[in-house]
Design brief:
Elements lengths: L11 H20 L12 H14 L6 H18 L3 H17 L2 H26 L5 H81 L3 H32 L14 H12 L5 E7 L7 H21 L4 E8 H4 L3 E8 L14 H11 L3 E7 L5 E8 L4 H4 L1
Parallel strand pairs: 1-2
Antiparallel strand pairs: 2-3, 3-5, 4-5
Helix pairs in contact: 1-2, 1-4, 2-3, 2-4, 3-4, 4-5, 4-6, 5-6, 6-7, 6-9, 6-11, 8-9, 9-11
């Protein structure tokens, strides 16, 4: 298959410079406004140099080094045949374009090369002419070579800095978007945990007592079950309102919603005792955490762990003692240990259906605080089910 070489057309700036150079150079030649030839070449060659220089201008951006090489040859011919100002102007643009659009090596070397050529040209002129006017050669070389080269350096430095700033801004915007998405995901997970922990216990109690009301054809038992269902429905509605309050607080509401504290564990145990409706269950709270104040996140996590553990007791545990224990090591200055132990249920299945998200939510809460969680059968031949969580507690100075 033959290879086709496609060349993109020159940009508008290159076309304008080439056209202006051709028109201006032709007019100057017609008026005879050109310098004295150095090598006695025919003046017509200045027009040849003009055409070649204009053609090189068309490559100033697509192939800047090639354009500079062609322009250098045309400029040498122009000087030998009687220089036109238009050729000089276009050549300075080629030097500038080579530094601005060329590769990094050209950007570093061309300015140094122009300085070296200017110095050598000045010394050569002084040695040959031996007159103070020979210094004008050095000035001319500096104007034609050094000035456009360093102008290109300055423009390229600012262009690269602007490009780097733009890339940095885009990277910052990308990181901000990633942070926003991560925050949204984390907030959704937090609200999912809150929703599960607040509502699951009430719905489990409602499911258990509604099943009992349907299966036992006794008016008194049905009336009592309906009372428990109503109580849990009201409490679940209150919890949902609190959750809505949290959402409104995040949206800028005036009044923040209250956060559950460990002082409300007695009410949690009483609710669980009412939900199971079995005298063989006994719920005991042993609070040995001391007088030290706990940070709000730790209290909320401990409260939710106890709440979910009691929900699981209502669903799965066999009748027997249920112990909720809160302890702190180091005279009330160490981590908070939350322990909930109950009798392991049999193979009869759960009293109410569940989604299996309770342990996942507890592990997420503990992990967010940097603690540990263990849940499973323990002691007495595996007849007890225990949930144990250790929650690190930082001092008020660290958390403030």
């Amino acid at each position: 298959m033959p290879v086709r070489l496609t060349l993109s057309p020159p940009d508008r700036v290159a076309l304008l410079i080439a056209a202006a150079g051709l028109a201006g150079g032709g007019l100057l030649y017609a008026l005879g406004l050109r310098s004295t030839p150095l090598a006695g070449l025919p003046g017509r060659l200045a027009l040849v140099a003009l055409v070649v220089m204009a053609g090189a201008e068309l490559l100033r951006r697509r192939a800047p080094l090639t354009a500079l090489a062609i322009g250098t040859a045309a400029f040498a011919l122009d000087v030998c045949a009687g220089s036109l100002v238009a050729n000089v102007g276009m050549y300075t643009d080629l030097v500038y374009a080579a530094v601005l659009y060329g590769p990094p090596a050209a950007y570093r070397r061309i300015p140094r090369a122009t300085e070296a050529i200017t110095v050598l040209g000045t010394l050569l002129a002084v040695a040959l002419i031996r007159d103070p006017t020979s210094l004008l050669v050095g000035i001319a070389l500096a104007v034609v070579l050094v000035a456009p080269a360093w102008t290109g350096v300055g423009v390229r430095v600012h262009r690269d800095a602007a490009r780097a700033a733009r890339l940095a801004a885009e990277r910052t915007a990308l990181l901000a978007e990633l942070d926003r998405r991560e925050a949204v995901v984390a907030e959704r997970a937090r609200m999912a945990r809150e929703l599960h922990d607040m509502v699951a216990g009430h719905l489990s109690a409602i499911a258990i007592h509604s099943s009992a009301a349907l299966s036992i054809d006794e008016p008194e038992a049905s009336r009592e079950a309906l009372g428990v269902i109503r109580q849990n429905s009201v409490q679940g509605l209150a919890e949902m309102r609190r959750l809505i309050g949290l959402l409104r607080e995040a949206a800028g509401a005036d009044e923040p919603a209250p956060t559950p504290r460990l002082d409300g564990l007695d009410a949690l145990l009483e609710r669980a005792r009412t939900s199971v409706h079995d005298d063989r269950f006994s719920f005991v709270l042993r609070d040995e955490r001391g007088a030290g104040k706990l940070p709000v996140p730790v209290e909320l996590a401990a409260y939710r762990i106890v709440q979910e553990s009691l929900t699981n007791v209502v669903k799965h545990a066999a009748p027997g003692p249920v112990l909720v224990e809160l302890t702190r090591d180091g005279d009330g200055a160490g981590p908070l240990t939350v322990r909930v132990a109950s009798v392991l249920g049999g193979d009869t299945g759960p009293r109410a259906p569940g989604a299996g998200a309770g342990l996942v939510g507890m592990r997420e809460r503990v992990a967010l605080l940097g603690g540990t969680l263990a849940a499973g059968p323990v002691a007495d031949g595996g007849k007890l089910w225990e949930v144990r969580a250790e929650l690190p507690v930082e001092s008020e100075e660290k958390t403030s």
